[in-house]
């Protein structure tokens, strides 16, 4: 399966995904204010927890600036609810079958438990108020990533 990556200026592909509370979140419903969409491989793993908690720790500043944060993984809503509660995540964690990650280019070859495989590639996007991508970052390292994202947003 060919997965193409997105670029700055592209329209953000719409999605309708279930969050940790069983609610359907549609990206198109959020047009009018900036949205940060980040993909992570697996809730509860070390780097994914670090990434989620970094967004949590910066959530007040992002939210005060009118930015919506959405985290997307292949985890089921029940798993996301447990993870979100354990880590006190104040934003929506969305459950994807893999189709959204593929459409956003956040899918490909990556080591899974030290073994070559395919899956979600840790990636972050800023969707501007018009629905266009203003920042695209694939295969990110969570260390310092949200700080870099805040700088891109001017926050």
Care to describe what's here?
With 155 residues, the protein is α+β, with helices and mostly antiparallel strands. The protein has one domain: Glutaredoxin. 28% of the residues lie in helices and 29% in strands. The chain has helices spanning 46-57, 59-64, 77-87, 99-103, 145-153; strands at residues 16-19, 24-26, 35-39, 68-73, 92-95, 107-112, 115-120, 123-127, 133-138. The strands form two sheets. It has a seven-stranded mixed beta sheet with strand order 2-1-5-4-3-8-9. The protein has a two-stranded antiparallel ribbon with strand order 6-7. The model has no long low-confidence stretch (mean pLDDT 94).
Could you outline the blueprint of secondary structure elements for this entry?
Layout: E1 16-19, E2 24-26, E3 35-39, H1 46-57, H2 59-64, E4 68-73, H3 77-87, E5 92-95, H4 99-103, E6 107-112, E7 115-120, E8 123-127, E9 133-138, H5 145-153
Parallel strand pairs: 3-4, 4-5
Antiparallel strand pairs: 1-2, 1-5, 3-8, 6-7, 8-9
């Amino acid at each position: 399966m060919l997965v193409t990556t997105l670029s700055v200026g592209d329209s953000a592909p719409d999605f309708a995904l279930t969050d940790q509370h069983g609610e359907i979140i549609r990206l198109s419903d959020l047009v009018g204010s900036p949205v940060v969409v980040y993909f992570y491989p697996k809730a509860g793993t070390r780097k994914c927890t670090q990434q989620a908690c970094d967004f949590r720790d910066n959530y007040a500043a992002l939210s005060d600036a009118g930015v919506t944060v959405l985290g997307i993984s292949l985890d089921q809503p029940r798993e996301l609810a447990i993870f979100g509660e354990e880590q006190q995540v104040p934003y929506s964690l969305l459950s994807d079958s893999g189709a959204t990650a593929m459409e956003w280019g956040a899918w490909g070859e990556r080591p899974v438990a030290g073994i070559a495989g395919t899956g979600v590639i840790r990636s972050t996007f800023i969707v501007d108020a018009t629905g266009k991508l203003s920042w695209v970052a694939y295969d990110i390292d969570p260390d310092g990533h949200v700080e870099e994202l805040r700088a891109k947003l001017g926050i």
